[in-house]
Design brief:
The structure holds two protein chains of two kinds. Chain A is of the alpha+beta class. Among the domains of chain A are: about 70 residues, no CATH class; about 190 residues, Phosphatidylinositol 3-kinase, Chain A; about 25 residues, no CATH class. Chain A contains 18 helices and 19 strands. By secondary structure, chain B is of the alpha/beta class. Chain B has one domain: 3-Layer(aba) Sandwich (Rossmann fold), CATH 3.40.50. In chain B, strand 2 and strand 3 form a beta hairpin. The longest helix of chain B has 19 residues. Chain B is globular, with a radius of gyration of 16 Å. The chains are: A alpha+beta, B alpha/beta. The interface between A and B is medium-sized, with 35 and 28 residues. Chain B: Keywords: GTP-binding, Nucleotide-binding. Chain B: InterPro entries: P-loop_NTPase, Small_GTP-bd, Small_GTPase. Chain B: It holds the Pfam family Ras.
């Protein structure tokens, strides 16, 4: 049995005619032997995935954590005995599986990616992408049927195209007139039945479920604050979508958070006292028309109300419908609350995680000043719980429950605020963004560990592992992969990574920070 | 409409007197039979931080808590009073002032007899949003008796001065002008009087309707 090896890789996800390929270069260990390998789950680029290193028959589990560069956070290589593996194998399940004894729970008709196969025992290890992220487990080969790859790829490509077109439209009309906006609104409405919910998941959902995303059908509930605008009320995944490897935080949100940090921390009752309703809707209109409000015009309470409105008007709450029950149950758990909270947060879509981290970081600062502003974490919890979480089928009859019975939400949000540093250890407080190196240490960022461990144990003859998946990753090697100023990373025609020193006009194979790693 | 006898000028009567009166009637009511007792459901609405919870506590418990705490969801307290020689149980619902709850719909407010719209006289914003609270919350405004309560009169020096003269012309239709007044949940100014008056108005109105 080979040992598991942990290593930090660089990866660039590239799109090539609808296929996603990922380019890995082993810069850390061996000075860069580039490997081109297809991603097992190549849809989003920000999901955890598994890839096969072609030369070595080694599996590579990875997790993208940086939207912009899609650099690799943590990589684990597990050697397996299976050699007859084709990564791109997509199969359809013909019998609904319950997920007992290490089996992959999936409905009939779900498409899965086969990662490894054991033909002797008639089993395979497969993965599928769900709302909660990647789910993996064993399946009987007899429960699977092959699907025509070409057909599926075509479907996939088409859905990509649709979303890219919508994005392009948006970019072209930066400051549209009212008619254009209306037209665009119609366009969006037309597009939404086929791409509802979180953009990142949508196309894959379609692919996987074979249904047009019924899961995301918007509820005509009274919770819905406003009709969908170009910013407010849009699914957050769509709003922050640039490409499958890139996301952006809406500019206005960054500005609002900066402003509140700069001016609001000493304000008594910040976030509790509501601002002028008229001013808030004015700002909302400006932002929905892609403008920037002149912030000086409005007082701090109004701006804080705008922030609350943004979260409140999301079609799906930031903490998602799927995880609502799990989050509610969490508060009753006294013993392993923090660990479970970390796990649950890791299950949120990455975009939601980043937004949550950004918000909680601000709220934590507010609560630190509670001597002055009177907003303790409990108060903030009360104020923010109804804007961050609500159950799916909340109609008029259960609004009573919401208003009288929901004591849990506030407690939960207060807990998040108090434990912010433990929940998001990689979050850079000063820069208000993820520190890419630190986040490697987050246990929760590496859900891929689970399936990998299983494939490892499988080669020991213990095929079906009924114990709950545990994550035992060797401590990742944490290294500063950022480029020093004046340096640039590039790839030569043979695919090898090299580094350019712009100042001295030199190139080299070694990473410019390589000398600091050894010390 | 209106309740002539119980509403004279805005009383400057000291709070202790009113409290005694209330205590007396409450103990008196408790000993009486329940048969004739009327139930009045009163809901307090208004922006966050204007003092709805404090008002309710001042009225029912004669207490003012200095702690600064937002209300979760909603809460209610009851108080037995005597209005025009009729025993009445006041059920006062205190609601969360978060904007999120503005759109909750009528389910929660079903069965309410009276709606007290609370604002902070030091904050014009809270006064402006009274209208939106009224409209968002109540689908059939004619079923309700509306009363305006301007809270925090005790804060004199930092007041933006929203005078009652200015408030009067601004009062929207459907609000019981006679029973709307300025109160202070902190030192109890006019609180008991305001609630008694509100109850009387509602009862009179109900009688007229039926």
């Amino acid at each position: 049995m080979q040992d598991d090896v942990a290593c930090v890789y660089n990866a660039i996800a590239q799109k090539n005619k609808g296929h996603y390929r990922s380019e890995f270069s082993r810069t850390v260990r061996s000075g860069g032997v580039p490997l081109l390998c297809p991603l097992a789950l190549s849809v989003s680029g920000v999901q955890p995935g598994i890839a096969l290193l072609p030369e070595t028959d080694k599996f590579l589990g990875f997790h993208f954590h940086d939207f912009k560069s899609a650099k690799l956070a943590a990589v684990k290589i597990t050697t397996t005995a299976h050699t007859n593996t084709t990564m791109a194998d997509m199969m359809r399940i013909i019998r609904t599986t319950r997920g007992k004894e290490g089996e992959l729970p999936a409905k009939k008709g779900t498409l899965v990616t086969i990662i490894s196969r054991d033909d002797k025992k008639g089993l395979c290890f497969a993965e599928t992408l769900t709302q909660q992220g990647v789910v993996s487990g064993w399946l009987k080969m007899s429960d699977l049927e092959t699907v025509s790859n070409a057909e599926e790829r075509k479907k996939k490509r088409n859905s990509f195209k649709k979303e890219e077109r919508a994005l392009l439209n948006e970019k072209l009309e930066k400051r549209p007139t009212k008619e254009q906006l209306l037209e665009k609104g119609i366009l969006q409405r037309d597009a939404s039945p086929s791409s509802p919910g979180i953009a990142r998941h949508t196309s894959y959902n379609k692919l996987v479920r074979g249904k047009s995303g019924t899961k995301h059908t918007r509820q005509a509930s009274i919770i819905k604050e406003s009709p969908q605008g170009s910013v407010f009320g849009r699914p957050v995944g769509q709003l922050m979508f640039i490409s499958y490897t890139e996301f952006r935080i809406p500019e206005f949100l960054v500005e609002v958070i900066d402003l509140l940090t700069a001016k609001g921390l000493k304000e008594q009752g910040l976030f509790r006292i509501s601002g002028s309703t008229l001013d808030v809707s004015e700002m909302k209109d400006i932002i929905d028309h892609n403008g920037t409000p002149s912030w000086d015009k409005y007082d701090i309470q109004t701006i804080s109300s705008l922030l609350k409105l943004f979260f409140r008007s999301m079609p799906e709450p930031l903490l998602t419908y799927d995880l609502y029950d799990a989050f509610v149950k969490l508060t009753a758990d006294e013993t392993s609350k923090l660990l479970k909270a970390q796990d649950l947060i890791a299950l949120l879509p990455e975009v939601n995680q980043v937004l949550l981290a950004k918000l909680l970081c601000l709220l934590q600062k507010v609560s630190r000043n509670s001597e002055v502003n009177k907003m303790t974490s409990n108060n903030l919890g009360i104020v923010f719980a109804p804007t961050l979480m609500w159950a799916k089928n909340q109609d008029a009859s259960s609004s009573h429950e919401l208003i009288t019975g929901n004591m849990v939400g506030p407690e939960l949000i207060a807990f998040f605020i108090e434990e912010f540093t433990s929940l998001f250890p990689g979050f850079d407080d000063t820069r208000m963004q993820y520190n890419t190196d630190k986040s490697i240490n987050r246990k929760s960022t590496i859900p891929t560990g689970a399936p990998l461990n299983r494939s490892a144990s499988s080669s020991q003859g213990n095929l079906i592992d009924s114990s709950p998946p545990t994550i035992h990753l060797p401590p990742p090697i944490v290294r500063d992969m950022s480029m020093p100023p004046g340096w640039e990373e590039s790839v030569d025609p043979k695919g090898r990574t090299y580094y350019i020193d712009r100042k001295n006009r030199k190139t080299q194979w070694e990473h410019p920070r390589a000398s600091s790693w050894n010390s | 409409m209106g309740c002539g006898n119980s509403q004279e000028e805005v009383p400057k009567a000291s709070a202790p007197n009113l409290l005694e009166k209330a205590d007396y009637s409450e103990s008196y009511i408790r000993n009486k039979s329940v048969i004739n007792r009327k139930l009045l459901k009163v809901i307090l609405l208004g922006d966050s931080g204007v003092g709805k919870s404090s008002l309710m506590n001042q009225y029912v418990h004669q207490q003012f808590a200095a702690e600064y705490k937002a209300t979760i969801g909603a809460d209610f307290l009851t108080k037995h009073v005597m209005i025009d020689n009729v025993p009445v149980t006041m059920q006062i619902w205190d609601t969360a002032g978060q904007e999120r709850f503005q759109s909750l719909g009528v389910a929660f407010y079903r069965g309410a007899d009276c709606c007290a719209l609370v604002f902070d006289i030091n904050s014009e914003k809270s006064f402006d949003s009274v209208t939106s609270w009224k409209e968002a919350q109540i689908q059939n405004p004619h079923d309700f008796c509306f009363v305006l309560l301007g809270n925090k009169v005790d804060i004199e020096n930092q007041r933006q001065v929203l005078k009652i003269q200015r408030v009067n012309p601004l009062m929207m239709s459907g609000v019981q002008k006679e029973s709307s007044q300025l109160v202070s949940a902190k030192n109890g100014t006019c609180v008991v009087d305001a609630f008694d008056c509100l109850a009387a108005t509602t009862l009179n109105r109900d009688d007229l309707v039926s």
